[in-house]
């Protein structure tokens, strides 16, 4: 390949619409072809270690290696120079790839040619590019000059990848902002609550966020695991990079592999072009594997490999490439139980749960209930366009007494439902809407009995012979109204004030309960 052709081919590699890592793989392939060598490796400098990002001609396991610069004199020499560096076949400096070259017998490098160049992006050393040829004399002075020129395009390819990544991060950030501005309950990512158990979790979360450890969020459905995963990402060093959400339960088994790891053109019928997977999209950032307990066994094995060495292999490809992704997973399942039943791999569990973070259920942090209720009332107030949306005291007691098997999600839905019902029965007075106990429609006998205890004298409990919720609630409401009427000298407006409900609403309720 002529020099000009090399540059043209590199430019063509550069402008393909593919993920940065795939582009860099194409670049190393082109370089190998041009320089007639055995191996070309692109290594990125990260904390005094060189990490292979793209390579050709090296054993696959080399991608998992990290070369500590000062332990590898050839790499240190390349990094110390801004020019291409060549090592003579009889150089006494050990080659970092000895034992790893695919084409040499046993992978061993006897006499061979080697050259390399340091790469600089935005004025800083980004890493190095190395070329090894098994035939001595392959790299002459002209080859060194050609490498020097080609390195400019490699640097451009790297810079392009960085720019793409920041554009993606900005887009995500903007999307997050748009969500939180939209006022939707489910889209507001602020964690509300101030109970001691919640503050403990928040404290732990901010400590672990700073590390790069995989985190496994555990907790019942609706406790807020997704919200915590977002917070973890926001507080991590990867905050400016993408956070990619994957709902493992919603991945169809047949498509799970290509969705997560990507596929090559023609990998299956319908794969009309090469496509990157979610792990590629999360490169540099975090992937959140929600409901990880639902992953099919075959995908569990592939995921394990990614966690072990950061390598992914597209469906239909025999090559793998590295990605730098922090994995945060969540489940409401008992994974240990799933391991026993053979539904979840023990080795994957240990990889995922390097830092398990349990989130307590709402019933164990009841101090959060009024605060969360206030938050959801405010969201609904804005959505429904009313001046104020309030809970009566009895309704607040009922919320506190209930045990919330569906946790915060259930509370959110309960409030939204009650708010709409309150409006629909005309519970508004000058745009102030009161939600009383009946509108909460809380299921479960426990609620009814505690409401009774809270609201009425204990000796009145005998008045409720059954535990049927509807009947019990009606009975409670009837007694409360009678009690209020008695206190208010049978003046309905005053009784309504005692009960903190709208007078017209009280009349309707009294009629429905047969009190009028
Ligand atoms: N502390 C909180 N502050 C504000 N909203 C919360 C809080 N916890 C949960 N939510 C809200 O409750 C709903 C359920 O939360 P989320 O989806 O994070 O729960 P989850 O634990 O991931 O549930 P599942 O296991 O079913 O996926 C969401 O709308 C979320 O915004």
From TrEMBL:
Alphabetical list of PROSITE patterns matching this protein: SIGMA54_INTERACT_1, SIGMA54_INTERACT_2, SIGMA54_INTERACT_3, SIGMA54_INTERACT_4
InterPro entries per record: AAA+_ATPase, AAA_lid_NorR, GAF, GAF-like_dom_sf, Homeodomain-like_sf, P-loop_NTPase, Sigma_54_int, Sigma_54_int_dom_ATP-bd_1
Domain Sigma-54 factor interaction: 191-420
Stored NCBIfam families: PRK05022.1
GO annotation terms (biological process): regulation of DNA-templated transcription
Originating organism: Pseudidiomarina sp. PP-1MA
Domain of life: Bacteria
CDD domains tied to this protein: AAA
Record-linked SUPFAM superfamilies: GAF domain-like, Homeodomain-like, P-loop containing nucleoside triphosphate hydrolases
UniProtKB keywords: ATP-binding, DNA-binding, Nucleotide-binding, Transcription, Transcription regulation
Molecular function terms, GO-annotated: ATP binding; DNA binding
UniProt-recorded name of the protein: Nitric oxide reductase transcriptional regulator NorR
């Amino acid at each position: 390949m002529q020099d000009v052709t090399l540059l043209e081919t590199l430019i063509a590699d550069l402008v393909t619409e593919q993920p940065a890592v795939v582009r860099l793989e194409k670049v190393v392939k082109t370089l190998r072809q041009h320089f007639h060598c055995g191996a070309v490796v692109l290594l990125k400098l990260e904390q005094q270690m060189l990490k292979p990002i793209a390579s050709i001609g090296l054993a696959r396991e080399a991608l998992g290696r990290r070369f500590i610069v000062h332990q590898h004199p050839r790499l240190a020499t390349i990094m110390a120079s801004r020019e291409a560096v060549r090592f003579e076949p009889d150089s006494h400096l050990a080659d970092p790839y000895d034992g790893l070259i695919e084409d040499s017998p046993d992978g061993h490098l006897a006499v061979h040619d080697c050259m390399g160049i340091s790469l600089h992006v935005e004025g800083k050393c980004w890493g190095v590019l190395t070329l090894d040829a098994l035939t001595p004399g392959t790299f002459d002075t002209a080859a060194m000059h050609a490498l020097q020129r080609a390195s400019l395009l490699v640097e451009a390819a790297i810079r392009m990848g960085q720019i793409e990544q920041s554009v993606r991060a900005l887009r995500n950030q903007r999307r997050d902002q748009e969500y939180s501005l939209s006022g939707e309950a489910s889209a507001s990512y602020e964690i509300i609550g101030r109970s001691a158990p919640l503050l403990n979790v928040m404290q732990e979360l901010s400590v672990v966020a700073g590390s790069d450890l995989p985190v496994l969020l555990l907790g019942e459905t609706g406790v807020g695991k997704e919200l915590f995963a977002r917070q973890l990402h926001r507080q991590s060093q990867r905050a400016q990079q993408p956070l990619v959400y994957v709902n493992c339960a919603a991945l169809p088994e047949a498509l799970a592999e290509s969705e997560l790891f990507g596929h090559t053109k023609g990998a299956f019928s319908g794969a009309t072009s090469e496509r990157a997977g979610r792990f590629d999209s999360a490169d540099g950032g975090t992937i959140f594997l929600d409901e990880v307990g639902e992953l099919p066994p075959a995908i569990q094995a592939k995921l394990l490999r990614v966690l072990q060495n950061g390598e992914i292999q597209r469906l239909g490809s025999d090559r793998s490439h590295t990605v730098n992704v922090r994995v945060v997973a969540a489940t409401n399942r008992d994974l240990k139980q799933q391991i026993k039943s053979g539904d979840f791999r023990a080795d994957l569990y240990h990889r995922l749960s390097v830092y398990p973070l349990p989130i307590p259920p709402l019933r164990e942090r009841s101090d959060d209930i009024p605060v969360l209720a206030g938050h959801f009332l405010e969201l609904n107030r804005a959505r429904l366009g009313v001046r104020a949306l309030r809970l009566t005291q009895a309704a607040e007691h009922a919320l506190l007494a209930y045990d919330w098997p569906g946790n915060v999600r259930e509370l959110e839905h309960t409030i939204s439902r009650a708010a709409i019902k309150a409006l629909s029965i005309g519970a508004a007075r000058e745009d102030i809407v009161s939600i009383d106990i009946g509108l909460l429609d809380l299921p479960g006998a426990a609620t009814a009995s505690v409401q009774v205890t809270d609201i009425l004298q204990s000796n009145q409990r005998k008045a409720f012979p059954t535990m049927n919720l509807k009947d019990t609630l009606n009975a409670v409401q009837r007694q409360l109204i009678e009690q209020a009427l008695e206190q208010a000298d049978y003046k309905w407006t005053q009784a309504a004030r005692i009960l903190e409900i709208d007078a017209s609403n009280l009349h309707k309720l009294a009629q429905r309960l047969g009190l009028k």
